[in-house]
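quick q for whoever's on today - can somebody do inverse folding on this one?? i tried earlier but teh output was garbage lol. tokens:
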């Protein structure tokens, strides 16, 4: 599934495939990342996310398929495209006995497209952007993991970027570090930068992304806006009412297959699964009310992305933040 409105794409891959000697790590990937989106690249460990990101950035060659990054072909137009892309992949190596600021100066020196004259200013701005100004002159070995990760993101922000590619930016972080990184990503997107962020945590993607793609065993199983992905799943409607027979009749007439909730004399209502193309919850509620069914409770459940993804991949996802 792709986004309904054909927006200009920041990343587009066609049939992208990577084979390691015996193993197909990525198979026929057609990825469409709209500009301005915060795009979550979700999948369990080993599903091919890092391999895909490495191909996108020209760090490894695709076995077959095409990549367009910011309208340039990769890796053909790598030299023109990469200065517009900030990346955090496998965490940059920092010198522990240099300060955060000194580390960024060093990394900026290595970037030939980065003007020397503005270096100090840009380093200070990047540290400020990630909330590390107060720790700029502390040695990197004294940084927490979350601070190191933010320093890595600051490195990606030393130059103005149209696209940020972040591979598992909150991997290994405690909940506080995870929150810091998450809110930082939200604020980057507010500036209009497209952010492509991988994670194996569904909750993280749900909290910060506008779009997502799901990988399973090297294949893309779905992509789209979070609303599209949610809407494509089944839901379960549960009604609490004393008018059980009437409610069963109404739901049946809507094409659903309702069943009573509760046992014997303790039937408290009815419930029914609503398929993705079934009536919307508000239609069900209105039909019940119009038919004079007295509602004590009306719940819609199962509209979670987790259910949807488990349906699609047959795998559970880590949901903990
Ligand atoms: N250099 C390599 N040589 C051989 N196999 C590899 C290599 N790199 C990755 N793989 C394999 O390709 C598959 C996809 O790995 P990849 O690292 O892309 O997954 P991932 O979704 O990023 O997982 P993780 O979150 O654990 O990094 C895995 O089965 C992995 O073992």
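ok took a stab at it. sequence:
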């Amino acid at each position: 599934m792709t986004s309904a409105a054909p927006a200009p794409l920041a990343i587009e891959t066609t049939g992208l495939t990577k084979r390691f000697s015996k193993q197909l790590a990525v198979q026929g990937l057609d990825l469409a990342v709209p500009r301005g989106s915060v795009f979550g690249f979700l999948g369990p460990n080993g599903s091919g996310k890092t391999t895909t990101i490495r191909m996108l950035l020209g760090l490894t060659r695709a076995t077959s398929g095409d990549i367009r990054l910011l309208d340039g072909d990769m890796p053909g137009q790598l030299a023109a495209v990469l200065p517009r892309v900030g990346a955090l992949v496998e965490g940059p190596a920092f010198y522990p006995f240099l300060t955060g600021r000194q580390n960024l100066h060093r990394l900026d020196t290595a970037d030939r497209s980065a003007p020397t004259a503005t270096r100090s200013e840009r380093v200070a701005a990047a540290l400020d952007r990630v909330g590390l100004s107060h720790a700029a002159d502390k040695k990197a070995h004294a940084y927490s993991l979350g601070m190191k990760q933010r320093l890595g993101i600051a490195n990606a922000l030393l130059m103005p970027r149209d696209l940020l590619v972040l591979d598992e930016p909150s991997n290994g972080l405690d909940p506080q570090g995870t929150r810091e990184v998450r809110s930082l990503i939200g604020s980057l997107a507010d500036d209009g930068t497209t952010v492509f962020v991988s994670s194996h945590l569904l909750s993280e993607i749900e909290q910060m992304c506008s779009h997502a793609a799901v990988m399973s065993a090297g294949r893309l199983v779905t992509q789209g806006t979070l609303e599209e992905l949610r809407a494509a799943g089944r839901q379960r409607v549960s009604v609490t009412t004393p008018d059980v027979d009437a409610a069963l009749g109404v739901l049946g007439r809507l094409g659903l297959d309702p069943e009573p909730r509760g046992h014997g004399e303790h039937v408290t209502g009815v419930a029914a699964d609503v398929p993705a193309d079934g009536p919307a919850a508000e239609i069900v509620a209105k039909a019940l009310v119009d038919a004079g069914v007295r509602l004590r409770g009306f719940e819609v459940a199962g509209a979670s992305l987790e259910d949807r993804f488990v349906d699609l991949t047959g795998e559970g996802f880590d949901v903990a933040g």
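fwiw The pocket of adenosine-5'-triphosphate is lined by residues 20, 23, 25, 43, 45-51, 200 (CB under 6 Å). also The CA atoms of residues 263 and 304 lie 27 Å apart. so keep that in mind when u check it
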